[in-house]
Amino acid sequence: MTEGTLFGTGATPRSGVGTVVWYSPDADLPDPDEATADPEAERRRFEDARETARSELEAERERTAERVGDQEAEVFDAHLQFLADPQIEDGVEGALEDGLPAEHAVKRAFADPIEQFEGMDGRTAERADDLRDVRDRLVRILVGGDRVDLGDLPEGAVVLAERLTPSDTAQLDPDRVAGFATATGGRTSHAAIFARSLALPAVVGVGDDLHDVEEGATVVVDGEDGELVVEPSGERREAARETHDVEIREEAVTTADGAEIEVAANVGQPAELEGAKARGADGVGLYRTEFLFLDRETPPDEDEQYETYLEALETFPDGRVVVRTLDIGGDKQIPYLELPEEENPFLGERGIRRSLGPDADLFETQLRALLRAAADGDGRLAVMFPLVATPEELTAALETVDAVADALEEEGVDYAIPELGVMIETPGAVFTAPELAERVDFLSIGTNDLTQYVMAAARENERVAELRDPRHPAVLRAVARAVEAAHEHDAWIGMCGEMAGDPELTELLVGLGLDELSMSAVTVPDVKAAVEAIHTDEAAELASAALEATTSVQVTERIESTTPDQ
User: Fold this and answer.
1) What is the pTM of this model?
2) Which of 15, 174, 340, 525 has its CA 20 to 30 A from that of 456?
3) pLDDT band at 71, cuts 50/70/90?
């Protein structure tokens, strides 16, 4: 293809211009000459490869959490589950018994599950890419192949591919890569989600015509309008370069008619604080404290935690820093705490349940550090308790805060009670939100967990991904109920799940009544720009229409009908 425009689905509100680099993973394995391999020897090869793959995935999860974010890194938890999937294990075993070499057994075992996912509708079909990722990793290890390093592409490269797996996309360096486009995929694919988190221009689902674009061609990737422009005019190139960097708004923003909306950043490491400030975040809406407890033999002491919280407050002296107390269990494991093995850990002992139970000493130490930081820091500290399901849990947590304050006073240690809040992540918290809001300063909606609990669709189970949609009316009605409860009791309410960072949903969330939105730092400028374009009466009308919908599709249609140029 010498010139022209191809159309797909825009994954990010970004444009970039660069030179095409085609990414084509290793070709299919040739058929074995004979199916006479020793099953026992090949079984050992497969087990060794699976163990190597497991180590790779655990390392990639950690790197992705640091570079992209904890939420995005969760995809590798699903990949680890696929490694031990009984259907795949049985398929490999059967192929080995038929005399196939281990690499061919893997290819055959994954074929049916991939086909099953591809035959499903919507987001669930995109889970086939996760299976391909795991399959290709195992095959590469078994044949001793080298992995293509997508982190070392020439500057200004635009990656074109039939598809990009999560492992592929996590390697891309946004400082070097100008964007990417894929023939397959949709807005909810992992490649698209990673692109948004990395602020990387991307167009997915272009179709087979993408293969007509030649290596070395100059292209514009327009992630907002969903266009890939081949050999663009000088004017189009310049326009793409100008829109590549979104305006950073350092000051707080209001809607077009003057309603104040706080736009904050989710932070998982101290190293992310300056980046959040540089992107214009008003403060920190979710400071995950698990990093303090991971990758060590013993928990952090009070002084180490105090210094960490003080650093965050000093980074945002005019803003608010919302710290979530230790949230472990579920998918977050800390070896030295000897967490129990549970059949369904997401419905088990996690979050505030552990803080009020087996980790009570850790909870008290953390609160001591937080109350000291609240007294000594320049910014406004807020503390929220995770996974609260009952008012009784909140009562116990508040009593612990009071007890810690009394102990500090007796010791003559300066302290202050920060703003206190509850995370709304469970249906129990939604239904008792009035009782909770009456006793705290704020509520914060964690849409990732709230969605999985409302829809009974586990975050790590890709087979029910279609249900795990925060746009579903059931989830939106839960959000609306929590907002109403907060405002009735003069509490402010924010949102810190992935939903908050999607600028296409900003008008809906403002219309629902959210006072604060917190997200990955890279999307802060886009959400701030979206806030400034909103008229609150129109946003309220959109929210009302969305709440009356009965399906996620209807909600999406109503959002798109209010968006210009749709």
Assistant:
1) 0.68
2) 340
3) low
